[in-house]
C-alpha cells in the first residue's frame, strides 16, 4: 500500500487566529479543560494541532480545546494538504481510532505509579484512569466478610463481588491532613484501617448500610 504524506509544513501561529471547524462534533467539559490546562502548565505544548488552508484562513481539523485554551499564544500547527471532504473524514475518525486502542494494564499501572503531578485536575484525571482500567487478572484474592475468597477476573466478577474500591483524590495539603486525621481517629477508636474509620464516622452521623437487593426466583 502506498501511503501519502499530507503534511505540507509545520507553522507556529497564534491560536486565536486559527478558525474553529464548524463541523466539530466533540464537546469539552470543565474537567477536561482543567486537566489540559494542568498538563500545559507542567509540560507545555508537546504536540501540534491539525489545520488546513481555506479562503478564510487556517481552519482546524483537530485540536479545538488546545486552541481555545491557548488564546494568543503561538502554537505548533501541522498544515495539511487535504480538501474539505478529506478533512471531514479526519474530523470524524481521529478520536474514534484512538479510542479503539487496547490497554496493557501492567504498563499502565507502572506509569500511574511513577508519574507525579502537582496539579489537582491532572491528578483527578489519572485517578479516574486508574479506577477505569482495573487489571482484574493482577488483583490478589480478596476475602469477604463471610470468610470466602473472591477472585476478580472479569467485570462480571467485580459487579457481583461483596467488596468495592473507591478512589479519592486530594491535593498535597488535603492529603496530609486526611492521613493524619485518619491515623488519630483509628488510634483513638481502636480501628485498624481507614475503611473502618470512614464507616465508623458515617455511623456516627446516622448513616447505616442497607443490604443490597438480590434477585430471587
In a few lines, what is going on in this structure?
Helix content is 43%, strand content 14%. With 217 residues, it is of the alpha+beta class. It is elongated and about 70 Å long.
Portion in beta strands? 5-15%
What would CATH call the class of the domain at 7-99?
Answer: Alpha Beta
* Helix/strand class: alpha+beta
How far apart are the first and last residues' alpha carbons, in Å?
Answer: 58 Å
- Mean pLDDT rating: 83
What topology, given as strand order, has the largest sheet?
Answer: 1-4-2-3
Kindly state the number of beta strands.
6
Uncertain parts: 135-141
Main sheet characteristics: 4 strands, mixed
Number of helices: 8
The proportion of residues forming helix, as a percent range, comes to: 40-55%
Write up what this structure looks like.
Helix content is 43%, strand content 14%. The protein is elongated and about 70 Å long. The protein is of the alpha+beta class. Among the domains are: 7-99, Conserved hypothetical protein from pyrococcus furiosus pfu- 392566-001, ParB domain (Alpha-Beta Complex); 170-210, no CATH class. Helix 7 crosses helix 8. It has helices at 30-42, 64-70, 84-99, 105-114, 120-132, 155-160, 172-189, 194-204, and strands at 7-14, 49-54, 57-62, 74-80, 142-143, 149-150. It has a 4-stranded mixed sheet. The chain has a two-stranded antiparallel ribbon with strand order 5-6.
List the helices and strands and how they pair.
Layout: E1 7-14, H1 30-42, E2 49-54, E3 57-62, H2 64-70, E4 74-80, H3 84-99, H4 105-114, H5 120-132, E5 142-143, E6 149-150, H6 155-160, H7 172-189, H8 194-204
Parallel strand pairs: 2-4
Antiparallel strand pairs: 1-4, 2-3, 5-6
Helix pairs in contact: 1-5, 7-8
Amino acid at each position: 500500500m502506498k501511503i501519502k504524506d499530507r503534511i505540507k509544513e509545520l507553522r507556529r501561529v497564534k491560536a486565536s487566529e486559527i478558525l474553529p471547524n464548524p463541523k466539530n462534533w466533540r464537546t469539552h467539559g470543565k474537567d477536561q479543560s482543567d486537566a489540559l490546562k494542568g498538563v500545559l502548565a507542567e509540560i507545555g505544548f508537546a504536540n501540534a494541532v491539525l489545520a488546513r488552508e481555506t479562503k478564510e484562513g487556517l481552519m482546524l481539523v483537530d485540536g479545538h480545546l488546545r486552541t481555545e485554551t491557548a488564546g494568543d499564544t503561538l502554537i505548533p500547527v501541522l498544515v495539511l494538504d487535504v480538501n474539505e471532504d478529506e478533512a471531514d473524514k479526519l474530523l470524524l475518525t481521529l478520536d474514534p481510532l484512538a479510542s479503539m486502542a487496547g490497554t496493557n494494564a501492567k504498563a499502565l499501572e507502572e506509569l500511574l505509579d511513577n508519574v507525579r503531578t502537582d496539579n489537582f485536575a491532572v491528578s483527578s484525571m489519572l485517578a479516574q484512569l486508574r479506577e477505569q482500567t482495573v487489571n482484574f487478572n493482577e488483583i490478589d484474592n480478596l476475602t469477604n466478610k463471610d470468610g470466602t475468597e473472591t477472585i476478580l477476573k472479569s467485570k462480571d466478577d467485580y459487579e457481583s463481588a461483596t467488596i468495592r474500591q473507591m478512589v479519592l483524590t486530594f491535593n498535597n495539603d488535603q492529603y496530609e491532613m486526611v492521613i493524619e486525621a485518619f491515623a488519630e481517629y483509628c488510634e483513638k477508636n481502636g480501628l485498624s484501617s481507614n475503611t473502618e474509620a470512614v464507616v465508623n464516622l458515617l455511623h456516627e452521623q446516622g448513616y447505616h448500610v442497607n443490604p443490597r437487593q438480590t434477585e430471587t426466583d
